[in-house]
Amino acid sequence: MKIVVLVKEVPDTYGDRKLSLETGLADRGASETVLDEIGERSLEVALSFADKHPGTEVVVLSMAPEGSAATVRKGLAMGAASAVHVADPELVGADLGLTAEVLAAAVQRTGFDLVIAGNLSTDGTGGVIPAMVAELLGVPQLTALVAVEITDGSVSGTRATDAGTMQVSAPLPAVISITEAMPDARFPNFKGIMAAKKKPFETVTLADLAIDAADPAAARSIVLAIAEKPPRSAGTKIVDEGDAGEKLADFLAQNRLV
Ligand SMILES: Cc1cc2nc3c(=O)[nH]c(=O)nc-3n(C[C@H](O)[C@H](O)[C@H](O)COP(=O)(O)OP(=O)(O)OC[C@H]3O[C@@H](n4cnc5c(N)ncnc54)[C@H](O)[C@@H]3O)c2cc1C
Hints:
6 helices; 11 strands; alpha/beta; about 25% helix; Rossmann fold; about 25% strand; binds flavin-adenine dinucleotide; globular; single chain
């Protein structure tokens, strides 16, 4: 069984996250960059299965700037057998379509029985990459799983919706996306960090994947304008002088909230 886990480098959610107002890209200098937590949870799903099923090969795959190798390597320290890092200057500002095209081509090149992704990244928050990758690979996808069971020929799991839960299943090969409700990931230990230095780490370019980022025939989206979020205003304070209820009702009515 070969499991490819899609992991993304993101600005640390505990830090000060900013957009560059010149490029629209994440301002990587504004905060620490980390492996997205949802990617770590996806990797944990694969590693937990591999722990109990010898012969399982877990590969981490990321499309990220050249300087992100150390972040991708964390996946190896956690326990993945190998890593593939797609890095190419032509990928700066890649939209969802190009990202999915690149990831699907890299997954195809690596070979796979199962692809595990997060349902939503913490920076781009597009939430569609796993579905696009599944479509391009021509395999089924199970979305937003809160529990996963992998067998030799199939993957099944639980989807939680506002109305209840549903059990879903798909034959392999398949793509699944998981949510933050999945268990926390393991921490890399010293042995894992040392072992990671000797594990296969492949850097792949667009030429290796035979993809042209500027292909005029491909549908690509571009950023037209960028604006910073306006600072939050202080809000309205209602002091109770015996008439707070009335003032509150007036405030709600004025703001068309009732
Ligand atoms: C040089 C360079 C600069 C980049 N700069 C930015 C940037 O400034 N801001 C930004 O948001 N993105 C950036 N990216 C990454 C890329 O453009 C986005 O990953 C992509 O658009 C996906 O958007 P999303 O996070 O909204 O996807 P979502 O659909 O929200 O992601 C869901 C899941 O898909 C998988 N996934 C998504 N993206 C990747 C990826 N790149 N590699 C592996 N798995 C992935 C993960 O499992 C993730 O949990 C950059 C990439 C490169 C190579």
